[in-house]
Write a structure and sequence with these properties.
By secondary structure, this protein is an alpha+beta fold. It has three domains: about 90 residues, Arc Repressor Mutant, subunit A, CATH 1.10.10.10; about 100 residues, D-Maltodextrin-Binding Protein, domain 2; about 100 residues, 3-Layer(aba) Sandwich (D-Maltodextrin-Binding Protein, domain 2). Helix content is about 40%, strand content about 20%. It contains twelve helices and ten strands. A five-stranded mixed β-sheet has the order 4-3-5-10-6. Strands 8-7-9 form a three-stranded antiparallel β-sheet. A hairpin with a 4-residue loop joins strand 1 and strand 2. Helix 1 packs across helix 2, helix 1 packs across helix 3 and helix 1 packs across helix 4. The radius of gyration is 24 Å and the shape is flat.
Length: about 325
């Protein structure tokens, strides 16, 4: 039995679908099925009940899932501890950022982090929408800046700030000309196809599953799509589909490039930007980055609030006639 086989088993157990698990693991489905069969043969138990319509864990599979998660968590802990020992006082931080999801506050965060940990080398990895959980859990990145909810119990999310949500629609859609929209205007819009490997709660949040009382939206075009953000945006435009995004993406993702238009939706709940870490042994550099990010964002927000506050005009002395500027 190998850790790789346990990793494959956990993916199938969590997805309960060999196709989705293969997409999440970036392996061919036949190879995944073969490895599960080898694992079952080695352990001399059947781990899944399979049929043409569903996949379910057997009682033996339930037992293995608990122990497999512990084993994989122990592997991650070991690798992180060895990385800390190898890198010494300098250290390396591998930071994941959703491609296109950068923010103007991130440079301030990085400056504060380097001031606190001047010898640390930061390696940035652009994540697609299917890489919000597994790279962290598997130790491929140490921390990630993510948008929206991720309720995976293997992660800890620390909120940094929030942004209003907007809707991205094709410039050909009649709603594209609106100055703003209400949530009720969005419920009949088609959304993009399912992206295998995206966390379900995360995908449902951006596709307004809660606002639809749990009902899935209409899906436009093909059945499945990749997690590459640029591919998804081109698809939305050419298939007249919609997607909600944080408002600050208007500065990092120029919609016109993709034939899309951002429209404000004031009554949508805001999107929260967070730092995500592994729950088990996140690593000292990751913890230092998270703590620094919280402090830096608080400072930037305070400065922005002071800068944005209009200067107050002095009160006119009693009995004096206010100037035209003061009357204005």
């Amino acid at each position: 039995m190998e850790l790789r086989q346990l990793r494959y088993f956990v993916a199938v157990a969590e997805e309960l679908h060999f196709g989705r698990a293969a997409a999440r693991l970036l392996v061919a489905r036949p190879s995944l099925s073969q490895q599960i069969q080898v694992l079952e043969r080695d352990l001399k138990v059947r781990l899944f009940d399979r049929s043409s319509r569903h996949v379910a864990l057997t009682p033996a599979g339930e037992v293995l899932l608990e122990h497999a998660r512990r084993s994989l968590a122990a592997e991650t802990t070991l690798l992180a501890a060895m990385a800390d020992a190898r890198d010494g006082d300098g250290g390396v931080l591998r930071l994941g950022i959703l491609a296109g999801g950068a923010d103007h506050r991130i440079p301030a965060i990085m400056s504060a982090f380097w001031a606190r940990c001047p010898g640390v080398r930061v390696i940035v990895r652009n994540l697609d929408t299917t890489e919000l959980v597994e790279p962290l859990v598997q130790g491929e990145v140490d921390a990630a800046i993510v948008w929206g909810p991720l309720t995976d119990e293997r992660l800890i999310l620390t909120p940094l700030f929030d942004e209003p949500r907007m809707i991205l629609v094709s410039e050909r859609n009649e709603l594209a000309a609106a100055a703003s929209l209400a949530v009720s205007d969005l419920l009949d819009l088609a959304h993009g196809p399912v992206v295998p490997g995206e966390p379900p709660d995360w995908e449902g949040y951006w596709n307004l599953l809660e606002e639809r009382n749990g009902e899935q939206p209409r899906r436009g075009g093909m059945d499945h799509l990749s997690g590459n953000l640029a591919d998804q945006l081109y698809y939305l435009a050419h298939n007249d589909c919609a997607l909600t995004t944080p408002a600050n993406w208007t500065t990092t993702l120029p919609a016109a490039t993709y034939g899309l238009v951002y429209v404000p939706v004031p009554d949508l709940s805001p999107a929260v930007c967070s730092v995500a870490l592994r729950r088990h042994y996140p690593g000292r550099m990751a913890v230092a980055f998270r703590d620094t990010a919280v402090t830096a964002v608080t400072a930037v927000t305070a400065v922005t609030a002071v800068t944005a506050e209009p200067a107050r005009q002095p009160d006119a002395p009693t009995g004096a006639t206010p100037t035209a500027q003061q009357r204005a």
